Amino acid sequence: MATLSFGIAAAATTVRTIPRFNSRRSKITCEWDPKGVLGPAQTGHIARLEFKRRLERDSEAREAFQKQLREEKERRQALRQSRVVPDTAAELIEYFLDTEAQEIEYEIARLRGRLNDEFFAQIRLEIGQIRFAVTKTADIEDRLIELETLQKALEEGIEAYDKMQNELMTATNSLTKLLTSTDIKTTLLDMVEKNQINRSLLALLDENIANAYKGNQKEAGDYMEKIRSSVLKYLTV
Fold it and tell me: Where would you find the membrane-spanning parts of this chain (predicted)?
């Protein structure tokens, strides 16, 4: 397949598995239906199904809901652009404490380089000072809970983000190896031994297949579909 031309697309780096930080300050401000178009807020599985069915049969309600989603997306984008990242570790702690829960993933990805030993040393210092304080008020106790929750959320979030980045890099290298291989089966067996067949590789293949067909590269898309079938077989072993 030397005549095929492949441009490997890197998968999006949005983190989807990071635990949500949830402090008193981090509250989602998007309301269910501020204009009352969709009726009062409802919770629970049955209520969500009813809400979904209503959207499907009510075009006006569906349009109103989509408008709310667009407005919330625009609000979050504007908020991201307006925030100024501080210079010191102490100020960065406050920055994260003032970050909305649904924005924690984005901020971890954006500020990964700042979330280093110095930053976590500052969190541990503040936690230690509060724990060993002679006098503790309700506000101080709340501060301790916030800091401990933030520390745990960021540590788990960073672990998930770093794992995703490593898997993405491995998947990109693996896909390049497959697309340039003259013996797909042998290459796949070698990758199985090295534990390089995973869902990240499959997702990257899917993205490149879609891009190939979108760019009218049917031959390349068909070839990658065959590779995908082989990868899927080894993935489920």
Answer: none
Q: Look at the pTM and tell me if it is higher than 0.85.
A: no
- Rounded to the nearest angstrom, the gap between the alpha carbon of residue 224 and the centroid of all alpha carbons in its chain is 26
| Distance separating alpha carbons of residues 106 and 102, to the nearest angstrom | 8
The per-residue pLDDT for range 76-85, each reduced to its tens digit, is 888 888 899 9
Domain boundaries, the chain: 41-82, 85-163, 181-235
Q: What would the pLDDT profile of 167-214 be if each residue is shown by its tens digit?
A: 888 889 988 998 898 998 899 999 888 888 888 888 889 988 998 998
Which residues contact residue 170 at a Cβ distance below 8 angstroms, ignoring those fewer than 6 apart?
Answer: 196, 198, 200, 201
Q: Supply the pLDDT for residue 84.
A: 92
Q: Residue type at 182? A: T
* Separation of alpha carbons 42 and 46, rounded Å: 9
